[in-house]
Design goal:
With 299 residues, this protein is α+β, with helices and mostly antiparallel strands. It has 2 domains: 51 residues; 159 residues, no CATH class. The protein is built from 8 helices and 4 strands; from the N terminus they run H-H-H-H-E-E-H-H-E-H-E-H. The longest helix is centred in the middle third of the chain and has 29 residues.
Length: 299
């Protein structure tokens, strides 16, 4: 007796697509060659915009920037600015440079003398407020140009015109800051000093145990030739006393510092004198939007 054997196929939900239809549908999902070329061009332009700003930055010199790097930066400028690809590319590490501060020498109506320093990380809080003052001091130092005319200005009249324009810009910013400080403290500003905070060398740190807030690391930057310091004046009409001409020393913000107080290393322990405020014991770091790092050592 023979038995009939039948084999049944498992049931599947829905129709079974053919291999030809599957390949056709996958090809339809791919962008056309024209769109792929357009997308490739847009990606290439974006990458060029990303590197255009740092390339121009690293080719800067006293004579300007490289013309090769100026072309893509100029053509892609609107997109670079819109996408904020022009942020700072300057970092302190591995060789941090000096930072800069501003000392405003004030005389109160009662005759008291004081010095207001910006930035001061102890007086300006929160951190963002200190950071803004740090940027103001650095910006003023970057705007500085010598107060004397360039040598042989007749050889290139454009050089003399550029010097007058840049010097006027520096004096306008400096005087604006001085008027604001005078109004805030109700005193007369008789001097504005740019202070450079230099970093100690390895020998000074390891052998001499010099701290980052040592008064010897704070140098007043002159704004006139030595023979012209006595006759220098500023736009506001008040005499601009040059570095070293005042009978008092820079001290903590808003505090009167008599000339008979401690000077030199002794001033460091008392918190008076140049750099008397406690400074961070770190070297280096990085500059956020071009600014952070040695700012920890200032004030």
């Amino acid at each position: 007796m023979e038995a009939d054997v039948t084999f049944s196929q498992p049931k599947r939900d829905g129709p079974v697509p053919s291999s030809g239809r599957s390949v056709a549908s996958g090809a339809a999902d791919q962008p056309s060659p024209r769109w792929r070329r357009v997308l490739s061009l847009l990606i290439a332009l974006h990458l060029l915009a990303v590197v255009a700003e740092p390339l121009r930055f690293f080719t800067r010199s006293s004579r300007g920037t490289s013309p090769v790097t100026e072309v893509p930066r100029r053509w892609l400028g609107p997109y670079i600015d819109l996408a904020y690809l022009s942020h700072g590319y300057f970092f302190f590490a591995p060789e941090p440079g000096p930072s800069h501060l501003i000392d405003f020498h004030l005389v109160a109506p009662d005759g008291k003398q004081m010095v207001v320093r910006y930035p001061d990380r102890h007086a300006q809080w929160p951190r963002l407020l200190y950071h803004r003052h740090f940027m103001l001091a650095e910006n003023l130092n970057q705007l500085w140009v010598p107060p004397w005319e360039p040598a042989d200005p007749g050889a290139d009249p454009s050089m003399l015109a550029a010097w007058k324009r840049d010097r006027a810009r520096f004096e306008a910013v400096r005087d604006s800051m001085a008027r604001h400080v005078a109004q805030r403290f109700g005193a007369q500003v008789v001097g504005v000093d740019r202070i450079e905070h230099i970093l100690p060398s390895d020998i000074q740190v390891f052998d001499q145990h010099m701290r980052l807030n040592d008064p010897r690391l704070y140098v007043a930057l002159p704004d006139a030739l030595p023979a012209e310091q006595e006759a220098a004046s500023w736009q506001g009409g008040s005499p601009l006393v040059q570095p070293g001409a005042l009978p008092w020393r820079p001290g903590p913000i808003g505090e009167e510092v008599p000339a008979t107080g401690p000077v030199g290393p002794a001033a460091e322990s008392t918190g008076q004198g140049v750099g008397g405020n406690e400074a961070a014991e770190t070297r280096g770091g990085h500059r956020a939007d071009g600014t952070e790092g040695q700012e920890e050592n200032d004030g």
